[in-house]
Amino acid sequence: MAWTYLFFAGLFEIGWAIGLKYTHGFTRLVPTVLTVASMAVSLGLLGLALKSLPLGTAYAIWTGIGTVGTAVLGIILFGEPATVLRLLCIGLIVAGIVGLKLVG
Fold it and tell me: Cα–Cα distance between 77 and 70 in angstroms, integer?
């Protein structure tokens, strides 16, 4: 169950990272409330996952899911460049996440 918590914690991390863009510096109420709620859920789920997963592994996977998801959504939603080098780096992060899952 801890891995499930960690996966969803990572998804909510993507949610709050993307949400930050929509808050316009916390000047828009609804995006701000949703972003803060997503932060709380993400950290809460991470805390549950940490009950049984190693800290280093869980934290690295949590941030990795958030990083990859945010980078991909930045390309899709905000027209950020999808260069070969950028996509290769995203692939390296995914490889690291998979590696940590396999040894954790």
Answer: 10
Q: Residue 26 corresponds to which tokens in the numbers above?
A: 């916390």
Crossing angle for the helix pair 29-49 and 55-78, nearest 10 degrees? 150
Which residue type occupies 50? L
- Segment 74-98 mean pLDDT: 95
Dist. CA 42–CA 45, nearest whole Å:
5
- Output the 3-class SS for the chain: CHHHHHHHHHHHHHHHHHHHHHHCCCCCHHHHHHHHHHHHHHHHHHHHHCCCCCHHHHHHHHHHHHHHHHHHHHHHHHCCCCCHHHHHHHHHHHHHHHHHHHHC
pLDDT tens figures, 25-60: 999 999 999 999 999 999 999 999 999 999 999 999
